[in-house]
Amino acid sequence: MALTPKQTEIIKSSAPVLSEHGMTVVTRFYHRLFEHHPELRNLFNHANQRSGGQSEALAHAVWAYASNIDNLAALGPAVKRISQKHASLGVQPEHYPIVGEHLLAAMGETLGDAFSGEMRDAWAAAYQQLADVMIGAEKELYNQRAAQPGGWIGWRPFEVVRKVDESEEISSFYLVPTDGKALPPFEPGQFVSVKRYVGDIGLEQPRQYTLSDAPHGKWLRISVKREAAGEGDAAKPAGRVSTLLHDELHAGGHVEVSAPYGDFVLERTKRTPVVLISGGVGLTPMVSMLATIVMDSATRRVSFLHACRNRRVHAFREWLDDVIADHPNASKLTFYEEVGPNDVQGRDYNFVGRLDLATIREAVLLRDAEYFVCGPMPFMRAQVDALRALGVDASRIHTEVFGVGDLR
Q: Where would you tag: which of 33, 163, 190, 321 has the fewest CB atoms within 10 A of its CB?
């Protein structure tokens, strides 16, 4: 049911209040949710909960919804992306009333008398409107997966048939379904969720990893960075799930996997140039895209621009060299922040320092090109800003955001 004009105005007018108190609201929301429904902890990234990143992301999302309540089309890209993430985690329609109940209760506890009567009714209606949109989008995704040859809904057991160290930090896992049935097609750039039990917190923990190979139907490959602990008092702890995968998951091991999802994808029917811009482990979707481009076409031009700390952490280096040598339509440029004594410029790297698109504009500004950017959040912000400064239209810039960040 659509909101009344008065309810719309109430929601929009509450946006400044949510901007001020949003973090308090969502922190209280998560506390209530997990207190009453501890089983839902298995749907959430415990590390993001602990760091507060998940709360910050939800607070921003609630504020954005209130601010755009009279122009929901502006939220279309966010709804599409969130529904893809939800589908990979197995979010179901019955989860929405639970979330709504505790979100409204948290608003009431935080805002007190200001959140009563008309405001509560307006937010109840607004939440239901958003829930209906999300449920519809996720249902469509589930139906698409169920109808695909080899597709599935929920979790499917896979075996690791091969494990390869790509660098000091990144290992690839080659996964095949234990039921022996076919794999579904996927779009280059999509991801799967992988679920692993974490004993020290007593929870199944899902993590989303990009598929790092072309969609050839032989296996699904994920390439996982070991998230090491940072330094200093405020440093982040080591990644629990990535550490478990690196240390405990080997050839012959098993893991539960979702079907592929995601809207950060290469359109394979196009023949316009592609520029792939990555930092660190953000190269995984780019590897899938490059592998698919050279599999599909001998003429579609592609530039692979990558930045990393040094040669030791430069994943897929030899594979990329082979691809470039065998395909004249592909080129690459690499930036190292640190150069070792045995590194050779032109062979191991091209430039020293952080990736600077302005200095390589000839490799960047390809006519009618599509631009794909993935990496740490500060890296992506810098590259998107650089592309815009070079005159690239925003419609041709595509970014992938994992975890709880955004490019606002």
A: 321
Is 22 annotated to bind ligand? no
The active-site residue, picked from 30, 96, 174, 349, is 96
Task: Answer yes or no: is 292 a known binding residue.
Answer: no
Determine whether 138 is an active site residue: yes
Note whether residue 407 is domain-resident.
Answer: no
**How far, CA to CA in Å, does 234 sit from each of 45, 201, 229, 231, 375?**
19, 21, 11, 8, 22
283 among the known binding-site residues? yes
> Does 327 show up as a binding residue in the annotation?
no
Nearest to 110, CA basis, from 18, 15, 8, 5:
18
Share the mean pLDDT of the chain.
Answer: 91
Residue 294: count of CB within 10 angstroms of its CB: 18
At 241, give phi and psi (nearest 5°): -70, -45
What CATH number has the domain bearing residue 194?
Answer: 2.40.30.10
Measured CA angle at 323 (ends 317, 327), to 5 deg: 150
On whether residue 43 sits in a domain, the answer given is yes
Name the pTM for this structure: 0.91
> Using one digit for the tens of pLDDT, what is the confidence trace for 239-263?
789 999 999 999 999 999 999 999 9
Distance CA 179, CA 157 (A): 8
Q: What is the residue range of 122's domain?
A: 5-147
Last residue of a domain, one of 147, 176, 210: 147
pLDDT digits (tens, 9 = 90+) for 206-222: 999 999 999 999 999 99
Q: Tell whether 281 is in a known binding site.
A: yes
Number of domains present in the structure of the chain? 3
For residue 123, is it within any domain?
yes
From the candidates 138, 169, 227, 400, give the one annotated as an active-site residue: 138
10 and 131 share one domain:
yes
